[in-house]
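Before relying on records like the one below, remember that each one covers exactly one chain. Contacts with other chains, cofactors or solvent are not represented anywhere in the record.
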Amino acid sequence: MTRRPYHRATETERREDLIAATLDCIAEFGIQGATVRQIATRAGVTGGLIRHYFDGKDQMMQAAYRQLMSEMCAPSHAIAESEGTGRDRLRRFVQANLAPPVAEARTISLWAAFIGHIRVDPVFSAIHREHYTTFLASLEKILSAFFQERGCPGAAETYRSYAIALNGLIDGLWLEGTLVSDMFAENELAETALISVERLLGLESGALSAFDAT
């Protein structure tokens, strides 16, 4: 197990280091195998210092899950708030969720380690709901811009329904592509996703998937 290099850090930085070390240990040993001692060693601190920031291992796991979800959702939020056409943002949204750092082995391993806690731990459930809600809101915003740009705006309920369906589509390809990434050519999943999104949204062929489409 590699120890993180020591540096004099602020309290905020030290807490972030501990969360990063927690994620590292979970990725390597799983939730049950990741001990407070291992996390302290990875972070280059003492167990006593950990207790200054966290009440115990459960709280460290919750903070680590929140960090993981924030990292996974960050590209989508950034795209929703970025400049560009609705079409460009929708294309980039799909592509970003099927490319690193969202779609990579470490991310899915961590996600899989945490996911079983959502149904049994109210804190994990609340963290998941918070990020799922903001993720859908980002996608709804992009869809609204896309359809307004095409001159056919819809109701908020329509965008919500589309966002839920698109998220399910992307999630399926994300799981499949990350678990058996060697079976797909570069960009194959993203291109497949764009074509599938066209059909789901009732768009003409090439509305999203063609690079020269307007």
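The radius of gyration is 20 Å.
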